[in-house]
Design a protein that fits this description.
single chain, alpha+beta, 2 domains, six-stranded antiparallel β-sheet, 7 helices, elongated
């Protein structure tokens, strides 16, 4: 359950706040699944008609234990020699039957909690979106990127992609993100690994200026933004390093 502080800080005429303890009492009582209604009633009763000074917004997220596994997030933080706190995050799409999981909005919500990354939001989203899309489309689904050279090919590509997603039974993608600060340089590293067969990453690719077709420009855009991009393993692992001054 997610809620604004307008719930716990709701006050009654004598100035006392509803508080976390009363909220916990409501949450710990099983009353037939009407959680939001029960909390709202408890707050209204407590306030005794006192006008609200803050918004009261609540969201209940029901988790079905029988549903497919959602992405697993692990975070950790380490304070180094720099003034800023370094941290890392791992998101894993474990093998399951979910075919429509898009972890990027969730990841971006977490990243934007770091004030130092806010002004780089567009670049970071482009980098992670391209790497994740490559991992899913080409790594897991085995899509042929050469189809995206013409409008007709693009239409065929997305049609075949939709069919491939519909028939996909398992998907395993791991995204590791690290943010470190060394003196005046901030380093953002994202590493994506997929369960696909990989590809010959040692083959020389066209430069960005030479890639004029509708497809194939994504990775070159990422290269233009990043300090370094390194493929590893059998081509199913890629690590991109994005840096900026602080």
């Amino acid at each position: 359950m997610c809620l604004l502080d307008g719930v716990t800080e709701a006050v009654r005429p004598d100035g006392e706040m509803f508080g976390e303890e009363r909220l916990e009492e409501c949450l710990n009582q099983d009353r037939g699944g009407l959680l939001l209604e029960e909390v709202k009633t408890a707050v209204d009763t407590f306030c005794e008609g006192q006008s609200r000074k803050d918004d009261v917004t609540m969201v209940e997220i029901i988790c079905d234990g029988n549903a497919s596994v959602l992405p697993c997030i692990r975070t950790s933080s380490v304070r180094g020699e720099s003034d800023q706190c370094d941290w890392q995050m791992v998101v894993e799409l474990a093998p399951n039957k979910r075919r429509d999981v898009d972890p990027l909005p969730m990841i971006m919500d977490v990243l934007m909690q770091d004030d130092g990354l806010v002004q780089h939001k567009e670049n970071l989203f482009l980098i992670m979106s391209e790497l994740f899309t490559n991992a899913l489309d080409h790594g897991v689904l085995g899509m042929d990127g050469s189809l995206k050279q013409t409008v007709e090919g693009m239409m065929q590509y997305f049609s075949e992609r939709e069919k491939a997603l519909a028939s996909l039974e398992t998907v395993a993608i791991r995204i590791e993100i690290k943010h470190t600060t060394h003196q005046n340089e901030s380093v953002f590293m994202v590493r994506v690994e997929d369960s696909g067969p990989g590809f010959d990453y040692k083959r020389e690719s066209a430069s960005l200026s030479e890639t004029g077709a509708m497809g194939g420009r994504g990775l070159q855009l990422v290269r233009s933004l990043c300090k370094e991009i390194v493929f590893q393993g059998r081509g199913n692992e890629v690590e991109a390093t994005y840096t900026f001054n602080v």
